[in-house]
Each structure stands twice: as C-alpha cells, then as structure tokens.
Design a protein that fits this description.
This protein is about 40% helix and about 15% strand. The protein has about 375 residues and is α/β, with parallel strands linked by helices. The protein has 2 domains: about 5-160 and about 345-365, Glycogen Phosphorylase B (Rossmann fold); about 175-345, Rossmann fold (3-Layer(aba) Sandwich), CATH 3.40.50. It holds the Pfam family Glyco_transf_4.
Length: about 375
C-alpha cells in the first residue's frame, strides 16, 4: 500500500486499553511506512507516551462536541499536514474531528472501543459523520448495523492485535515473584485490568474470599491502576485479604507478570469489546475464566480457549477457577487453544493489515 498521512485523535486524558491500542496502531503503521501523528488532550497520558516513542503529537483542547474553535483548529491542522485519513476514537474528538474532516474534505474513520449501546436518535449522528466505523468486536458491529442503522459495508470489526513475540510463553521469573511478595509453590490467580467500576474487581475479591473459604491454597494478583485503585485497596483490607492479595499498580512490563499467573480472570459485567488483557494472557498460554460480557465470548470460547461463566457472580468465577486449578490437563489444553487462536486471528499484524485495507477501501470510495 502506498504511504498515507494519518492522524489519530483522542480527547481522553486517561490511560487504558483504548489508549494502548491507539499508540500500538500508530507505531505499527509508522513501521509500515505511513506518516503518523496524533492530536488530542494537551495534558493527557497519551501525549506523554507518544512523545516517549518519538511520535508527533499536536495538543488541542476540545471543550465539548460543539467546540467551534476546536473544529476550526482541527480543520486547519488537517489541511496544513496534507492528511489522508483522520482516525477518531472518543466521543468529543469524534464530533470535533468528524465535522472538521467533513469540512476539510479528509477521509474520516471512527473506532468504537466499548460494547455499550449507542443511543439512536436524530441528534446523535456522530457515527454517521465518518465514512467507516471500526469496532473491536462483532456484537457492537451488529448493534451499529441493526439498531443504529449504519450500512453493513461501513462497519468493520477489527479486534485489537497482540504482539505475539512480546507476549510469548516463557518461564515464570522467580526473582520477580519474590520481589512482588508472592509465595513460592502457591497457585496465583490474576486479573489484569484498569481499575474501573465495570471491571468488577469487587467480584474478583469476593471470588478470592470464597476460594479461600473453601480451604484452598491460593494467592491473588491484581495488575493495573486506575480511578478505583484506592477503593479496591480498601476492599482488600475490609475483606481480610491483605496477606493473600498483591496489587502491582500500573506496570510497563506486563509480559513479565503474566507467566506468574496460573489462572487469569476477567470479571467484567459490561462494556467489553475484545479485551487486550485477555488476548495477552491467552498469548502466553494462560487459561482464562471470564464472565460473558460484551464480545469476550468471541475469544474466550468455552471449553476451548477458556471457561465462560455468567456475569455478576463471584460464585461462578470461583467454580471456574477451582475447576482449572484442580485439572492441570484442562489448564494446559485451554492455554494451548488460546495461544493458537491469538496466533491465527488476533496478532498485531492481522490488525494492521485489516486497518490498512479499510483505509484503502474508504479512500477508493471517496475517489469514485
């Protein structure tokens, strides 16, 4: 594909799976020879991460979806940089960027990262502004087509791709385990997720208490930071789990932590597309026990790549984890199945190729 000038926009100032995907996609496209930059929140964590990777970031304050000054500045940026594609990612930049791109005559795509429903009323036309919409899973794609009314050819499901070399199976690092305070010889049950309400760390901890109440020897690892971090730390103490739970906070070396985990857990009850953390754990051959939320079932295929349980139930999570801990052959089979699925369908290169092809179709359609 010929080199394109691509700008990604992001209004959010936080850091999580969405921002990690944006940064990974930008770096991947740059490696493929495209000219890539970002625009968005001047004080956001994505700006810091982009700068650390040597990517150009254009700071732009966006005070709301109808911020006329931001729309004018965005249009000027698109024109001055000779941009081929503007790729938006959040609500406010979706509006600002969508209108600016229309005004500038620039191709526009929007990624919908969550599986939450999009209200379908005449004033919510933000997903009708771009020429194409990317979703991270099939259920939200189907919703945008069947309920929101987008033409099927305008919506593509492109799950987040995983660096299969970075997240490759490896031996657990005994030194790292000791550094974290994990006890040798005791199984580790882990959750890797931003500490947000819908990730349901409260269920994970209730599950931990139930497993320990059954007399099981286990310890629990919570990897990630976020707005609910202090609340989760308080819950650990109030449930009397302080000696059994290790919280790492945000870590840049998640690939080193994952081999320490015998069973990975996803407790979310809503808003999930295809979570990167799940794919990362599957890539390192960790068996997953996950609640059936959003598009999780697209990758955690029950009895093949993991165990799916009903959402909102600590007891269901506990039963699934207990089953995997008690059956090493099942754990190994699920781990192999997960790694195989990621290699075949969810690699970083698969995501980049699908995105390039979508850019090509959008640009060809505009030319016609």
């Amino acid at each position: 594909m010929e080199s394109l000038s691509i700008i990604h926009s992001e209004w959010s100032n936080g850091w999580g799976g969405q921002e990690i995907r944006i940064l990974s996609e930008c770096l991947g496209m740059a490696r493929r020879g495209h000219r890539v930059a970002l625009v968005g929140c001047p004080t956001g964590k994505l700006r810091q991460a982009a700068a650390a990777e040597g990517l150009t970031f254009h700071p732009l304050e966006m005070r709301g979806p109808w911020d006329l000054a931001a729309i004018v500045k965005m249009r000027a940026l698109l024109k001055s940089q000779g941009v081929d594609v503007l790729h938006t990612h959040s609500s406010v930049d979706g509006w600002v960027g969508g209108m600016a791109a229309r005004w500038a005559g620039v191709a526009n795509l929007r990624t919908r990262h969550l599986s939450a429903k999009v209200p379908n009323h005449p004033f919510n036309f933000v997903y009708r502004l771009p020429q194409a919409v990317v979703t991270t899973g099939e259920s939200i794609r189907n919703h945008l087509v069947n309920d929101y009314g987008l033409a099927p050819e305008r919506v593509a499901s492109i799950p987040t791709g995983i660096d299969v070399e970075r997240y490759a199976p490896r031996r657990a690092d005994a030194g790292l385990a000791q550094e974290l305070g994990l006890r040798p010889g005791v199984p580790v049950v882990g959750i890797v997720a931003i500490l947000r309400s819908w990730k349901r760390h409260d269920l994970f901890l209730a599950m931990a208490r139930e497993l320990l109440g059954q007399g099981r020897e286990a310890q629990f690892l919570i990897v990630g930071g976020g707005p609910k971090e202090e609340e989760v730390r308080g819950l650990v103490q109030s449930l009397g789990l302080g000696e059994r739970v290790v919280m790492t906070g945000m870590r840049p070396d998640v690939e080193r932590l994952l081999p320490l985990i015998e069973v990975g857990v996803l407790a979310s009850d809503k808003n999930e597309g295809v979570p990167q953390a799940v794919l990362q754990q599957m890539a390192v051959r960790r068996p997953m026990v996950a609640a059936r939320a959003g598009d999780v079932g697209q990758v955690v295929i029950n009895e093949q790549t993991g165990l799916l349980v009903e959402p909102g139930s600590a007891s269901a999570l506990a039963a699934g984890v207990a089953r995997v801990l008690d059956d090493p052959e099942l754990a190994a089979r699920l781990g192999r199945g997960g790694r195989r699925l990621v290699l075949e369908h969810y690699s970083m290169e698969a995501m980049l190729t699908a995105t390039e092809e979508l850019y090509g179709r959008v640009l060809a359609g505009r030319t016609r």
